[in-house]
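#lab-general

N.A. 3:47 PM
ok so I finally got the sequence cleaned up, no stray characters, all 336 residues accounted for. can someone with queue access submit it? mine expired

B.Y. 3:52 PM
send it over

N.A. 3:53 PM
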Amino acid sequence: MENVRFAVYGVGPIGSLVARYGLERKWMELVAAFDIDPVKIGRDIGELVGLDERIGVVVQKPSLDILRSVRPDVVLHATGSFLDRIYEQILESVKAGSDVISTCETLSYPYYRYSELANILDLEAKKNNSTILGVGVNPGFLLDLLPAILTTPCLRVEKVIARRIIDASKRRESFRRKIGLGLDKKIFDEKIKNGEITAHVGYAESICLIADALGLKLDFIEERQEAVIAEREVMVGGIKIDAGRVRGVRGYGAGIKNDKEILKIEFTAAVGVEEEFEEIIIEGVPRIVWRSVGGTPGDLATAAVVLNYVPIVLKAEPGVATVNKLRPPSYSMVGV
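B.Y. 4:20 PM
back already:
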């Protein structure tokens, strides 16, 4: 494969990992990095992401002119969870003629919440010969693409169940804030309601991806999440949660057809969980059960998913894509 010129849009926890491990791939060349944080602007990306050397690419404020000047083959985007808030960033990258891979959860199946924006982006992408993909480890792989793939050896599928449980004490501080660790339940509920914290985003998108892969027309989708409250004081990994306070979040998404729950995904992120794992159950003929050991590290896995989709997206048809419509991904050993 010829060298792929890439830009990183958003140098936060995920974007930094994407930049760092993208630089390790001999067939990838970083040509630009963007962020709005004044503390990061002007700094060499190599130093910013923890490398021992400067690489000669400094973080700049997002600019269509710069994008058009450096002409990245693909923009690897990681700034937000909701398409309406990052829509202009995606559009800017497309107008520069670049493909876009974004960790935006609601972009993984944008037609559920943002059909109008998705249609506009699809038209713009086709006009500029660009492909747009929203993908990460969840949504994008563990609770949607992987369950769909695991139905392959089935003659009949009656129900798909996928669940993931993670230990929030092992996650970064920004993730802990996102799920409201240590809050009073009433305050947690208020912050969730007004969008001050989001907890997990993408239950419905995962359900849509599975349904679309299976050719299933659902009657409706349910999604819900709630606080997990500490029954007693919890002390794990240096994190203390008082009794009665939020120690995590638990949520689900469900796909309903003919008054039956056909698809179900469950996600729990909490301090003090007994075990981290992912589990997928396919009720059908034959019955399939798959379970991981020790769970999947979310941030590293998300960066890996983004990078492993680069060769696939570069060869995909222009427009807005979803993971179930593209060639199945894998780790790429090009240049190893």
